[in-house]
Every structure is written in C-alpha cells, then in structure tokens.
Amino acid sequence: MPFSTLGLSPAIQKSVAELGYDQPTEIQQKAIPIVLRGENLIAAAQTGTGKTASFVLPMLEMLSKGETQRKKRIRGLVLVPTRELAIQVEQNVQQYGKHLNLTSLAMYGGVDYAPQKQALIEGVDILVATPGRLIDLYGQHSVHFDEVEMLVLDEADRMLDMGFIEDINKILARLPENIQNLLFSATLSNPVRELARTAIDNPTEISIAKHSASKDSINQYMITVDKDKKSALLTHLLTERDWSQVLIFIGTKHGAAKLVSQLEKRGIAAEAIHSGRNQASRARVLDEFKAGTVKYLVATGVAARGIDIDDLPCVINYDLPFPADDYVHRIGRTGRAGSKGEAVSLVSRDDFKNLCMIESRLGHLIKRKTVEGFTPVKDVPISVLNYVPKHKRQPLES
Ligand code: AMP
Regarding beta strands 41-44 and 180-185, do their DSSP bridges make them parallel or antiparallel, or are they unpaired? Predict the structure, then answer.
C-alpha cells in the first residue's frame, strides 16, 4: 500500500518520500485514516514501529487546513515522557512538515524557561512537551490551551511509570472539551486503560500484533555470566564481534560512569549519558553517537529514552531492566525499519527476578548462550513464565 492512498496532502507525501519511506508501516496504515476521520484513538504500538509518524502525519494534515493560532496559543499538543523524546518528536514534526507552513516547539524541563516562553509568544501550531514543564509554563500564563484541537499522549505507559499522572490530569482538566484525543502506548496495561477512560471518549482501538520484542529482525539472546565477570565479558564481546555501533543499557548513573572507566582501562573508548550529566553534554554525546564518532554509548534507561537511531546493529543490556516493558523498549532500538539487529542481555543470578518478569511479559523464554571462559559459576535458573512479583514497585498498578 503506497502513502498516496492514505489521504495525506502532496506536501506531506513529498517530505515522506524525501526521507526514503517507501510505504507506510502497519501502525501508519491503521492509524492515519482513523485520525484523518477525526476519531479518537488508542493504539498499542512500540517504539520502532513508525508510531511517531502515525500521529504526526495526520496531525500535520489536519492542522494545515485550519486557521493559524493566536499569541501564546497552541493547536496540537503532544505529551511525551522525556526531553529526549520531546526533541526527537519535534524534529520529526519539522521533517514531516517541511513543505508546510506550521510552527512547532519542543518544551522540556532542566533548561532555561526564557527561550521557551519567547517561542510561545507568537503561538505555535504543534507543541511537543513533557508534562511538568508544560504545567509550569501554563501556571506562568506563558501558554493558553483554549485553541487546542488535538492532543496526543505518546508513550503513555512510560509517562505513568515516571509518575506524571497528576500533571497529565491537570493538563487534561484545562484543555477544551471535544478535542481529538490520541493515546499511544507500548502496552495497554490497566493504569493506561484507566487514563484512557478519563481522557478519551469513544476511542477506536488498534494494536500492532507483533511487538518489537519478537520482531524477526531482532536476534535476541542472553549470555549467562557471573556478575563480577560482566565487564570483562562486555570487553570481550566488543573486541570479538564486528558491531559498528553498540548502545549499552545499564541500571544506574554510577554504574554507567564506572563501566565507561572500566572499558577505558581495557582500551575501549566509550561515552555515557545519564541524568548526572547536564543537558548540553548529553545532547553533544548523543549527536556524536548519531554521527558515528562515538562507537559505544553506555546509557541509563531514562536517559536513553528518546534516542532514535536507525540501523543500530546492537543493543546490550548490561543488566536487566525493571519494569519488563523497558526491556521491550530497549531492544526496540535495534532491528528497526527493516534492518537486522542483535539484542544481547548479560544475565547473572541477581537478574533472575527481572528475567522472570521479562520472559513472562514476552510470553516466551529468551534464547540462552554462554561464552567460553565466562561460563557462570552461579547458575541462572529457568524462569517461571507466569511469574507475579510479590511487591510491585509501580505504585500505579496497585
Ligand atoms: P518510531 O516507531 O516512531 O520511533 O519510528 C522508528 C523509525 O522508523 C524512525 O527512525 C522513523 O524515521 C522510521 N520510519 C517511520 N516510518 C517509516 C516508514 N514508513 N518507512 C521507513 N521508515 C520509517
């Protein structure tokens, strides 16, 4: 099915063609006509499926037909969990809307208010924002919601995991009634459904059957290893394998910094992004990684949230994430849009609980391997697939 059948204007089709997209992905085929009909939508789709374009393209289409906004007003609002994702989505808005006359802005915390306030003075058509900063600026009367026509809650599960529910509810309560609402989430868990019930009247629901976790394009496996051998094993893998670039996920910012110095001692240059580094240096490292000058990037899950890099050949979980959906998000960074990828997890006995949750979430066991010289002394037991944790750490699920 070509893009031309979806009801998008020639200007949008042109920018999509310039980006080299041959045809719409499954989520785009399903979502775009629904959004163009003006319906509310709930979509279960993960990063890597092309979900961003599935709401940005029809949003551009609809807003390009209407009036431009007044001062301090916005017409399309996209709420996202992190600043990295805000930047990424807004970049997509610019790319896809290159041949249109719409304005956009990424708004997020951790940086000066002044430039964002300044950008809002003349109004923007599409605002991509993290909930906390948006509420702040709304409270300062820098932005008004009375002309909002469309709302997108992107990565809704993630926003709830990160504790944004109160901010989101405040925003929802201040938006005009009868606007078009779209919600995208990797999973439609109970808290997400609860949010959808309060936020979205009469939605059409779609889901992309294959989640990235089981995409054929990802060679997914784990290597069992003792915890104290992980950094030596990682060094071995980075040296032996022919990966042009690797994104390495790790649980904590201290762990990230330590790992980078351990790799450096063994002659491997790596960089880290985590919440302990300021926004400017995170952005710089990310740009260098995107440009290919940084080959190995060690990232904590939150810092890496908005990273969008095509053709990433390999993602390594240095430790296993919690909650399990993070695993799916993380490995979705590879094997995107048709290219092959490897997703490798280094799993020690300590990771067993998280492993059970991840494999239960996937509904299947992950292929196991050992590497000569690194066979673990402490075995990692085989998971129980219907594992239910005694204490769920996510308060919103209780
Ligand atoms: P997303 O799921 O929105 O994070 O998108 C994943 C990646 O797929 C991004 O790098 C997009 O640029 C790319 N992409 C989105 N739609 C298409 C398409 N129709 N054809 C090829 N690549 C696409």
Answer: parallel
Does the C-beta of 54 come closer than 6 Å to ligand 1? no
- Give nearest CA residue, ligand 1 atom 11: 50
d(CA 50, CA 26): 8
How far apart are the two ends of the chain, measured CA to CA in Å? 43
User: Which residue's alpha carbon is nearest to atom 18 within ligand 1?
Assistant: 21
∠ CA(282), CA(331), CA(129), 5° rounding? 45
* 60 touches ligand 1 (CB under 6 Å): no
Q: 372 alpha carbon to ligand 1 midpoint, in Å?
A: 38
Pick the CATH number of 3-207 from 3.40.50.2000, 3.40.50.300, 3.90.1640.30, 3.40.50.12780: 3.40.50.300
Ligand 1 site-directed mutation target among 8, 19, 208, most atoms within 8 Å of CB: 19
For the domain 218-369, what is the CATH code? 3.40.50.300
pLDDT at residue 290 in the model: 84
Q: What local confidence, expressed as pLDDT, does residue 360 receive?
A: 79
Give the separation between CA 352 and CA 350, rounded to whole angstroms: 5
- From the alpha carbon of 25, which atom of ligand 1 is closest? 19
SS3 204: strand
Q: Check residue 61 and give its pLDDT.
A: 97
* Token pair recorded at residue 86: 């805000």
Mutate to test the pocket of ligand 1, among 28, 30, 52 (most ligand atoms within 8 A of CB): 52
Name 249's bridge partners: 299, 317
Matching fold, domains 3-207 and 218-369: yes
Q: Are 183 and 43 in contact (CB under 8 A)?
A: yes
Q: Whose CA is nearest to atom 5 of ligand 1?
A: 50
The pTM of the full predicted model, rounded to 2 decimals, is: 0.62
- Residue 396's pLDDT is 34
- Give me ligand 1 centre to Cα 50, in Å: 4
Residue 311 Cα to ligand 1 middle (Å): 11
Going from the first residue of the chain to its last (398 residues), give the mean pLDDT of each consecutive group of 10, the final group possibly shorter: 93 92 90 97 88 97 86 96 90 95 95 95 96 97 96 94 93 96 92 92 84 62 96 95 90 93 94 82 86 91 65 88 81 70 94 89 84 94 65 38
